[in-house]
Amino acid sequence: MGRELPVLVTGATGFVAGHVIAELLRAGHDVRATVRDPARAELGYLRAIAAETDRRFDVVGATLDADDGWAAAVDGVDAVLHVASPAPKSRPRNPQDVIRPAVEGTRRVVGAAAAAGVRRVVLTSSTSAVVGGHDRRDGRVRTEDDWSDVGRCDPYDSSKTLAEREAWRLAEESGLDLVAVCPGLILGPLQRRGTNVSMDVLDQLLSRSVPALPRIGFAIVDVRDVAVAHRLALERPEASGRYILSAESAWLVELARILDAAFRARGYRVPLAQLPSWVIRAGSPLNPSLKLALPLLDQPVLVSSARVQDELGWTTRALPETVVDAGESLVEFGYGRRR
User: Fold this and answer.
1) Catalytic residue among 32, 108, 160, 224
2) What are the pLDDT digits (tens) for 227-248?
3) Which of 58, 159, 188, 229 places its Cα 20 to 30 Å from the Cα of 20?
4) What is the pTM of this model?
5) Which of the four CATH numbers 3.20.20.20, 3.30.2130.10, 3.40.50.720, 1.10.10.10 does domain 7-255+289-332 have?
6) 291: annotated active-site residue
């Protein structure tokens, strides 16, 4: 295969970006990736894939909170996949601590791509930019036409919504070809040690960090399927607009049951009892952790991925495969706790 221009992927050390880069390399793309500090980035697993596939994999320094490095990062690339975005593991005291870097980082990346005349930008957004701030107990399945209500969102949902809105504004202003993918809760195998907000959900179950489970719902998608969707959005000329990525909606207790069935015989005590919502509401004034759960209680995340399936032929793994593979990787890297 002849050498083509590389694809730039932002945030190479991240959970999603690592899988996206692996997918691109295996599909025959050369990849340039950004990290905060190239000298300290541990990316041996991706360099090994590049060697196996005989593709080029370069790393450059650029961060979402500074202009330095972005013009060089986008120079001579075919397209940009902007995957990096702040995802704090706890609620920030100041919402702008997560909103500002998400929006300003998107402005830097999309602006640099537009100035460089790249062919296409694929933005990693989220269902948090679709369902946030709405009362979802009405049972309505939401689509790409829906947007989160920023005035009622938590900081993370606001950050994803405002960042995607800013990307669309810049794309319209500059004539840039932009595609946004909006995944739900992303689970799946880790490529290296180090968890993230989404995989912490399963780690807490395997570690029995909580004795009982709040009634919280998710739209689940496998990280490997998310990576494929990014590649399809990059490669397919017909790709356009927003694409919701979700395989299945599930309650937290359903994820726990899958893990329990797969790992109980190996000594893992996954909590299965569901905590009544009234208990959480009653205890929330005294417990910050319970207070965080309040906006999510009894709220199913019902979204449709029909558009990406119909237009790009995207398919997904079954939920048990995703959860069990994710659990296996957590165990492999030393997470979870046997009784």
Assistant:
1) 160
2) 999 999 999 999 999 999 999 9
3) 159
4) 0.95
5) 3.40.50.720
6) no
